[in-house]
Amino acid sequence: MTAATDQRTVLAVRDLKKHFPIKDGALQRVVGQVRAVDGVSFDLLRGETLGLVGESGCGKTTLGRVLAGLEKPTSGGVYFDLSEQQRTELDQALRAGQGEDLAQLEAAHRVDRLDATNWRRFRRNTQMVFQDSFSSLNPRHLVSDIVGRPLRVYKEASGSALTERVVGLLEQVGLGRQHLYRYPHQFSGGQRQRISIARALALDPELVILDEPTSALDVSVQAQILNLLHELQQNRGFTFLFITHDLSVVRHMADRIAVMYLGRIAESGETTGLFDDPIHPYTEALLRANPDLTGDDEGFRGLEGTVPDPARPPQGCRFHTRCEYATPDCGWEIDDVVLQLEDTPALFDKLVGVERRSPFDADLEFVDASAAAALETALHGDEVPSSMKAAIEQVSVGAQTVSIKFREVNEVLLTPRGNDRLAACVLDALPSRD
Amino acid sequence: MSTTSTSPPLTTSHESAFRVRLRRMGETSGRVLSNPTTLGGLVIIVVMVGMAVLAPWLVEPNTPNASQMPRDWGAIAVPPGSPGHLLGTTNTGGDVLYGVIWGARTSLRLSLIVVTVTVAIGVAVGSLAGFRGGRLDEILMRIVDVFLSIPELIFALAIAAVLGPSFRNIILALAIVFWVKYARIMRAQVMHVKQNDYVDASRVIGDSSWNIFRKDVLPNSITPVVVQATLDMGNIVLVGATLSFIGLAEAGLAEWGVLVSEGQAGISGGRWWASTFPGLMVFLWALAFNLLGDGIRDVLDPKTETR
Amino acid sequence: MTAPATNLQKTDAPVVASVRDLRVHFKSKAGIVHAVDGVDFDVRDGETLGLVGETGCGKSVTARSFLRLVPMPPGIPVSGSIMFHPRQRCTACDGAGCVACDHTGRVVSTCPACSGTGCSTCEQTGAETLDLLTIPERDLRSIRGNRIAMIFQDPGKALNPALSIRKQVAEVFYAHRSDELLASAGIDPSSHSLPTGLLRRRATQQSRTLENVLLSLPPLRSRRSAITAAADDRVAAALAETQIPNPRAVMDRYPHELSGGMKQRVMIALALACDPDLLIADEPTTALDVTVQARIIELIKELQQRHKTAVVYISHDLSLVRRVADRTAVMYAGRIVEVGDSEQIFHEPEHPYTRGLIDAIPGAHHERGRLAAIEGTVPELIDPDPSCRFAGRCDFAAEVCWTRDPALEPVGDRQVACFIHHPPEHGEAPTFDRTAR
Questions:
Q1: Cis geometry, peptide bond prior to residue C74 (ω within 30 degrees of 0)
Q2: Per-domain residue ranges for chain B?
Q3: Does C28 touch chain B if contact means CB atoms closer than 8 Å?
Q4: Could you say which of C249, C296, C371 has the minimum Cβ distance to residue A223?
Q5: Which member of A53, A108, C33, C83 has the lowest number of beta carbons within 10 Å of its beta carbon?
Q6: Kind and range of the H or E element at A364?
């Protein structure tokens, strides 16, 4: 969807972080932080559908909850409803650091610093539909209570006027007056999701955050709900943030897509372009693993390894531990050596300690010299990816220690790739496959 | 291109929310009562409560203090069926029938006061701890832990030792000990219910915390407390009777525990009635509330509460 | 109702299992739910049969019936049979593959009653035939995990959290391969001496406390550890086969220490440990991420080709079944509506339901908001009258669809249960041209 003149930005997200403390021991001391969302920036323009895709644990649901105002961000900002000019001002002010302009903008637009009136405006205008339609409807309330509740909260209607408004909403989602006085458990999964949608529509919001709205439904019902959502957007001009793990669904629904991996956006851009010509290896991996009805079996392939611990995200590019195109510049570090060691119990058991000077430079101490020598040999072996070998700047074997120094690498940030595309990869394009 | 789904037969359009809720309540009670043992429990409770409420009309109240048993020094330890003493008398001429009927009144008063007070405190504390969480939860739960470590009988004895033996002090002692149970149940429930998406959905709408608690959290958390309270209506009378039996209530009080204690001296002499009738009452009371409580639990258990 | 499917197969591979007129109903408050209501299909040696359908179509109940894992009650076995023909290693080539076994390395076991000459028990086929629905529980136990294995949707629930991976996988070998364990520990399994007896009981995990004490004493101890070592070797080999990196280290882990994908690999290792004839996979990748799912699918396919195992793959995900299955059976409301070659079915579906289902999957060709949704919901299966179960949601339904059960009958190389393809003898036949309702 092309930007019209003075395209309003419904949400501007700037370097957003949400960390959850890991507590341990009797005193519940904080021993670490799970970096669920770790530096995410994007704009959500009025009337568009932005798809947020990623696998479990990538932080997409947490991001959705922060944007919906359900969680407070750890740092960074979510700015609501900016004009094009305000957005430019915001970015200038953020670059300049603290200042009068920034303070003014934040008071009126930054979601966690809004005054009462502006908060109310944000709250009305940002609604959410959840994945689990069982859990998202109060089992003790009638449909009339559930759908009418937003109208009651804002004192928009009461008595028979309220009932009529509710009937109107139900009719918009394909239900009717006969469903008013029933309990949620009397409905099928698809119907319950319609009730959820009706509730989200009641206040005529600007933005609806859809968190896996069809993941629990059968395909035939999913198609009904997707059609309904599209129809509603056409008629009422909603902005959608569509969170899902299903690539076929997001391709069908989204104008633009942001692919998340381990708390970060790996790649974002216009849907068709991103699907036809992915730049980030993770996007490509997702597409190749997606079983659709058209492709042949040739390209169908999965990903090796597991998602790293979000409390200790990898240096450089977060995907480098599983990336088949990894280069020496992708952020190989001491943790990657330790991971390799864990797969070799004979050596790992002899590891006494790791003395880190930086994530890239450390001494690994073993119980005896032979183990240290064995590690050095292993580092040249076939088990170690060649790009990792190339990233090693220096290895020296002491009596019982091995000092390893990797090439130091900065974080890989999202960079513009033309055509509204951003990707966080050291490569300019994916190597062609032959 | 709006889509309609086929649905089960429709409710008629003149249906109102009030009627639907009423019908659901009716259906739920119907399900509770469809179990014969539950119904049996309820019948016993109705009879007992009827006895308690109608006591002044069933047996003429003693003057000046109706809660004291009348003494008929002319008929000591007469067996059941004697004129004027349908269930016989005790060694000290106390009318067993009077004790049984007015004892129901005492028991009802005891259990109602204790359950009302403890449920109120427990639900308030548990809700606050569970709903707010954080530091407040920590503090409240440590207080609860302290109370949990006090054995109720010994605590009641201590109270009696300090404040002197009286039925009022039994009520006080039980109230102090029993609320913690509800606080724990309630906290666990609230923390569980709070995680439901419908609570988040209400927050996204922008409803106030109080409304969210009142409409979403409380009604969905209260069931186990209701069940426990029903069971405790019986248990408290059992504990209360034990305490009166060991002499923590005023002597001569028209109460089942006191009466059992008064009659026990006669058991070895073959005068079984003075202890047996009040003992039977305690047994029936506790049994009836346990039957009802179990019945309610079976029906209201969220796992079975569908379709 | 029993439609022999033989002439419709593309392959001539022998049938491993044939399901005939399977009906499993469930008791509920509202009445009898006809969860599986007359299902027929064959599974052939070495093929993957996809069983696909939406929630409540009966695919899981069908799959679980193979090993009698449907809880009864509330389930009621109404009718039907699941005839299973176990295989054995080809004696001519000792499993290497030869002309006699058509290069599969295994041949059909001969009927024990007639030694393959043909009798009434084996219906003159000479092959060992077991009706999985009626054989004694004892016989079934020796088949479960041995000749027929199953993997489930949630590997977290299927693995015992209190036992290490080593113990759980070893259990299969102790249960079904004790003789081999004894042999590799250097003990003659056919000997009847006391020590062998003790060790045998050890190898089948039946030892009691006293026996364990005896076994821990010097003369027997070394041989006992030889059995354990033999079992460990097998466990490690089984895990390695599913490409678990570093199997010896994984063996000592507990399920909660492994990721979802890794747990599913352990489940697959467990299932394939005894080289079964038939593997039943009930939504094995639904709980996994797509990239992991793709790896698991690759793995299942690869192992299947190596072991020549027949696989029944149950899923709600059509695009996935298309990737996995050679043949696909589409189920709706307790019945199979269409069965045939996967490529054909996904390319040119014949049954209106299959068509609807495939059209409902969002693809690149769909304009947004124009997905072909199947309106309505699955009917309640409580005491249904004879009718096509799909009639209520079908765009083409005619009167006959509401009054009679369509039978699963051949259409080209496929079988379809629809009056469009098999017009009734009298009454108006539905056609694809007409949009009724």
A1: yes
A2: 51-300
A3: no
A4: C371
A5: A108
A6: strand A361-366
A185 near B CB under 8 A:
yes
The class that CATH gives domain B51-300 is mainly alpha
Contact flag C377-B5 (C-beta cutoff 8 Å): yes
Put simply, the chain C residues between 273 and 292 with a CB less than 8 A from any chain A CB are 289-292
Q: What are the residue ranges spanned by the domains of chain C?
A: 86-128, 163-251
Sign of CA dihedral B69, B75, B80, B81: negative
Instruction: Tell me which residue has tokens 């009126």.
Output: A108
pLDDT tens column, A136-163: 999 999 999 999 999 999 998 888 899 9
Cα nearest neighbour of A228 on chain B: B2
Give chains near A: 3+ CB pairs under 8 A. B, C
* Chosen from B1, B6, B7, B34 to mutate, greatest number of chain C CBs within 10 A: B6
Largest CA distance in chain A: 86
* Tokens describing residue A247: 């690539």
Average pLDDT per 10 consecutive residues for chain C, totaling 437 residues: 40 80 87 88 89 88 88 84 81 70 71 70 72 85 85 84 87 80 71 68 69 70 76 85 81 85 86 86 86 86 84 91 91 91 89 89 82 80 83 82 84 86 76 58
A86–chain C nearest CA distance, Å: 32
Comparing CB atoms, the residue among A223, A288, A303 nearest residue C372 is A223
**Chain C contacts in chain A segment 252-271 (CB below 8 A):** 252-253
Count of CA atoms in the C-beta half-sphere (13 A) of B170: 27
Q: What are the tokens at B6?
A: 């086929």
Interface chains of chain C (3 or more CB pairs under 8 Å): A, B
Tens of each residue's pLDDT in chain B, 307 residues: 333 334 444 444 446 788 888 888 898 888 888 889 899 999 999 999 998 898 888 888 877 788 888 877 777 777 777 777 888 888 787 888 888 889 888 888 889 999 999 999 999 999 999 999 888 898 999 999 888 888 877 887 888 788 888 888 888 888 888 889 999 999 999 999 999 999 999 999 999 999 999 999 999 999 999 999 999 999 888 888 888 888 888 877 888 888 888 888 777 877 888 888 889 999 999 999 999 998 888 887 654 443 3
In angstroms, the Cα distances linking A323 to A83, A196, C260 are 39, 39, 20
Q: What is the pLDDT of residues A61-104, one digit of tens each?
A: 999 999 999 999 999 889 999 988 888 888 888 888 777 778 88
Min Cα–Cα distance to chain B from A183, Å: 9
CA distance C368 to C359: 13
* In chain A, residues 58-87 whose CB comes closer than 8 Å to chain B: 65, 68-70
- CB of A188 less than 8 A from some CB of B: yes
Residues 6+ apart with CB under 8 A from C201: C207, C211
Which domains does chain A show, CATH number per domain? 9-254 (3.40.50.300), 334-406 (3.30.1360)
- Would you state the structure tokens that stand for residue B47, as one six-digit string? 């009879």
Residue scoring higher pLDDT (A265 or C379): A265
Q: Does C131 touch chain B (CB under 8 A)?
A: no
Alpha carbon separation from B49 to A126, B39, B233, B284 (Å, rounded): 54, 15, 12, 12
Please report the ipTM that was assigned to this predicted complex.
Answer: 0.86
